[in-house]
Amino acid sequence: MPNLTIFIQAEKMPPEANLAELTERCTRLCTDVLQAALDNVHVIYVAARQGRGHPAYAEIKYRLEPLRTPSVMDAFMARLDEAIKRHTGLTARIRCFGYPAPAIYARN
């Protein structure tokens, strides 16, 4: 874990090359800032039919760790915001959800 899902209005979905660059940037943020193992990082894009709100919405789910302090998460969100703007041209609403390890049940 972390799982980063970015929902983008279908008609505003950027080209594949932009998404590939954004994926690389998001992966580096997860491994460098959040210190996640590369095999545990998942970046997913969902084309959305939006009713209202920002044209992009980023949601990250991650395991709570002592090193992931509020200041670390703030830095992560600021850099994620910059990356999304740079590679999509969109301003995203960003939400982070941390879970304690004993509350996570996973497979594969």
Layout of strands and helices, then pairs:
Blueprint: E1 3-9, H1 16-33, E2 42-48, E3 56-63, H2 70-88, E4 92-99
Offer a quick outline of the entry.
The chain has 108 residues and is an alpha/beta fold.
The proportion of residues in beta strands is 25-35%
How are the strands of the largest sheet arranged? 2-1-3-4
Helix content, binned percent: 25-40%
CATH class: Alpha Beta
* Domain count: 1
CATH-level-2 architecture: 2-Layer Sandwich
Protein name: 5-carboxymethyl-2-hydroxymuconate isomerase
Descriptors:
four-stranded mixed β-sheet; Macrophage Migration Inhibitory Factor; alpha/beta; 34% helix; 4 strands; 108 residues; globular
Describe the protein's architecture and organization:
This is 5-carboxymethyl-2-hydroxymuconate isomerase. It comes from Azotobacter beijerinckii. With 108 residues, the chain is α/β, with parallel strands linked by helices. The chain has one domain (2-103): Macrophage Migration Inhibitory Factor (2-Layer Sandwich), CATH 3.30.429. 34% of the residues lie in helices and 28% in strands. It contains 2 helices and 4 strands. It has helices at 16-33, 70-88; strands at 3-9, 42-48, 56-63, 92-99. The chain has a 4-stranded mixed β-sheet, with helices on one face. Helix 2 (70-88) links the parallel strand 3 and strand 4 (92-99).
